[in-house]
Amino acid sequence: MKTPKSQSCRGGMFRRSLFAASFAVAAVTSMATAYVSPARAAEKGSLIIGIDETASEYWAEYTQGAQDIADSIGTKLTVITSNYQGAQLLAQLGAIYATGCSKCALATDPSSNAFVKAVVHRSAVAQVPIVTIWNRPENIHPWDTDPKYWVAHTSFDGVMSGYYQMTALCKALGGKGQIAAVEGVPSTPPAYQRIQGLHKALAECPGVKLLDTQVGDWQETKSQNIVRTWIARYGDKLNGVFASNDAMARGAVAALREKNLNGKVFVTGSDGSKVALDMVKSGDMLVTVWNDPVLQGAVSISLAHAAAVGDIDPEKLTHAQRDFYLKQEVVDKSNVDQYLALKANAPKYTYDQMKANFWKDSAGQIPVGANK
Amino acid sequence: MKLVAKAGEVPGQPASRSLRFPARPGRWLQSIGPVAVLVVLALAFQLASHNFLSPGNLAAIAEAVAVPVILATGLSFVILLGAIDLSLEGVMATSSMTVALLAANNVNGHHWGIWAIVAALGVGVVFGAFNGVLNTYFRMPSLIVTLGSWFIGLGIASVLFPSQVPGIRDPIVLGLASTQFAGLSLIVFIAVAVLAIFHLVLNYTHLGRMIYAVGGGEATLVATGLRVPLFKLAAFMISGFLAALAGLLLSAQLGDGNADIGNGLLFPAVSACVLGGTLLSGGRGGAIQSAIGAVILEVLNNGLIQIGAGPYVRNIISGAVIVTVVAISGLHLRRKLRIVK
User: Fold this and answer.
1) Domain-wise residue ranges, chain A
2) CA A285, CA A274: separation in Å to the nearest integer?
3) What is the tens place of the pLDDT at every residue in B115-132?
4) CATH class given for the domain over A158-290
């Protein structure tokens, strides 16, 4: 069985694989285009942001907004990544705060509702002002939990986002048709808020029927499989897909493209990512809802920094200034060029500009019950 | 063959070691069990929804199952050794980013064409070799090594990620998904070809037989002086290669590079192997069996949407079916095992 011939064959195969291997390594190293600074003890007055992941357009843009502010005040931006794990975030904050951090400021997504209180408290103990984004449990607010250091919480209105998307679908379908919805990770506020918004608009659009809702966990490939199955199940009866974010909208369009249905079955998304804007322009997507992550990064870290250097006193702010939504816009074919231009040349924010009015882009206080 | 038969007599391992699958009632249940489950599931879903066995839906299942079949095929090689490869998702992420950034795209000026595909696949081979070398020559447990390379893969993909999702514009890469024959995309045919080739490799080559033998009783095999590490290395490289292929094909389907592309595909791949009757302890199972496991999982996914099961109930039903299938089809095997871990 073990012949010299088979040995030499395998040897050849092995050498060829080694060749392929060295080739691939060279390829990988030649195209490294981004560099993310690791967490380390912070310098005096530095800005810290806590993000969920690095390989995401949304978080890259959020970081860009915070970087703009850091550049404008001549300080360093420290980026820590939680990988959606609150415990990882806390551990890294602990490492940064361990050596002391005078006049530092933190803006972070606490990764989930469960970790908000712990993350806020960890910062308060280190006397670092903190601004949270996206996640906040219904029953705690910046003014009632470590109020001296939890400066503010800011997010985008998920209910409105879902409502905008569904309203656009209703209009495009002429008030009559059948749609299906792909939901994000069910325990996160944007996921249930956007679906809530969908139902709110659906109630005002009685001619449109929601055939099915499935969980796509924010993921492109999961959404693609779900939508592919819907196409097989409903065929011509499916007129629209409500995707709770742009990644899942991309998956939906990929599934529709397999059957040449892209552009014929309306797809909506939310986030305002570059790919989604391109697809709105090409007609593959009906609308996306523009949440400006660059602006969100600039506003959130500026507020925290303002409290750190004494430009604002958190305890003197109103509730509407401490717990607010940032504005968001519906992007359809009529206004997509404007947002593509904005994407290509994001304005470079400065701290002085933010300081003039931190709440210029606020869409109002987060209503009671929004985070239930 | 003598060698292989000897390996089977290692204490603690199932006694029967022959690779020709002799006709025994227990064995029959083991290999036919998953197929029977598949048929029962398909008929049940058809009765419940009347649409399940329509050509359109069968095509949808074929498209959805192509990539999981490729992953399960690759993973089978490593599992047959009695090892595990957890790095699939990391390899897929890096290969997806590699092809998206080297083929014609909308973020940089590269247009390597076919070489982008070669590079993406090469990434998988490198990861496989890395896993294999650490596991065999440095004697580190595959669980830890591949867990590490999983994160290395995700990390490399994150570093490579440009400020926006890279959209693939290369006609060759996109053609992998958009080219259709008989209503099915090229990806489905690639999956079938991969399955056929690696089934043959497992069953009719020296390498394949040695992989079974290593899984059956590595200690005995080492004592015979065979170059066991080389076979193990090859198994890891095949697994890495096929994971990279899976990442490449998914990227072609989606038309973009995505660092999350493998997210949530590792455990279904492991489940597929186990469902199909490939033992995690190694030495028994095969590519076809694992592929059947992957098809069962996708039939469940698809069928539960077809019959309109809610998203929350879906997980419960999927889990229950998986446990039941393994319980029934593996009963005869587990009776022989002295210990279950």
Assistant:
1) 47-156+292-326+347-365, 158-290
2) 12
3) 999 999 999 999 999 999
4) alpha beta
